[in-house]
Amino acid sequence: MRFDLTDLRLFLAVVDAGSITHGAIEAGMSLPAASERLRDMEAAGEVLLLHRGRRGVVPTEAGEALAHHARAILHQVAQMRGELGRYAKGLRTEVRILANTAAISEFLPERLAPWLTAHPQVDVELKERQSTEIARSIAAGFAEIGILSNAAGTEGLTLRPFAIDRLVMVFPADHDLAGKRQVRFADLLDCHFVGLMDGALQKHIEMQAARLGAKIKLCLTLRGFDGICRMAGEGVGIGIVPETAARRAKRSTRMAFAPLTDDWATRQLSVCVRDETALTPAALSLLDHLTSSSAC
């Protein structure tokens, strides 16, 4: 029975996601390739590892045992790399970061730049994910550092404060909402929205609407917050963006904004890792920089 590290990472991703499709995405594989690997793992061990159903997959008793040992093995591999990294000189290294939309667009560029300049031998692989996915992926060892909101379950992870992210509603300066100091999301669901194109934040907003039994009425989707603010200012539709983006855009566009009163709209962003002692020197240095008082 031979399983390589890619097999183990894929299996954990599938188990944690409860889905072969989502596990394959997390492991960076196509669905056919992931399915074939899983079948080969079961064939090699002559044992059923996953119960497959309409609502996803769950591990069998043998699968639970494999998941337990896979976590231990991947953890030891991470520790090994961390210890060896202390002796490496002049070699390029990589730190993998998963972060939500607000962190990537509003906070990370300014904080990452000086650290990367001071560490030219380090490459950073940065991917956007929803906070719940980030917590799951960090726990499974698919990245060293995650930046997520307090909406995600983070049991078993080490957290450090990163930033406060406040979401606000943006609209034309002459809109009926312009006189309000704050607004409720539920009162806006009859409006047409300008939203993000395939962003983790957009999925978060749509999930909040679904909890209210509604669906966001999107008239346009764009790739960035500045574009949303500009379109909202012109009256195309209202939008939801981080307060930092709204304040920046207000200097050059005809728009106004008001905070959302909903609890989910004010989020504590935290940096999370699975085990600080298992981080490579580069990852630990970046973690310390991102959460230092000077960076914040």
From TrEMBL:
- Note whether Nucleotide-binding occurs among the keywords: no
List the record's Gene Ontology CC terms alphabetically.
Answer: cytosol
Gene3D superfamilies annotated for this entry?
3.40.190.290, Winged helix-like DNA-binding domain superfamily/Winged helix DNA-binding domain
Record keyword Metal-binding present: no
User: Which Pfam families has this protein been placed in?
Assistant: HTH_1, LysR_substrate
Listed SUPFAM superfamilies:
Periplasmic binding protein-like II, Winged helix' DNA-binding domain
The protein's UniProt keywords, in alphabetical order, are: DNA-binding, Transcription, Transcription regulation
Give residue ranges for domain HTH lysR-type.
3-60
**Molecular-function annotations in GO:** DNA binding; DNA-binding transcription factor activity
Name the protein family: Belongs to the LysR transcriptional regulatory family.
Output this protein's name.
LysR family transcriptional regulator
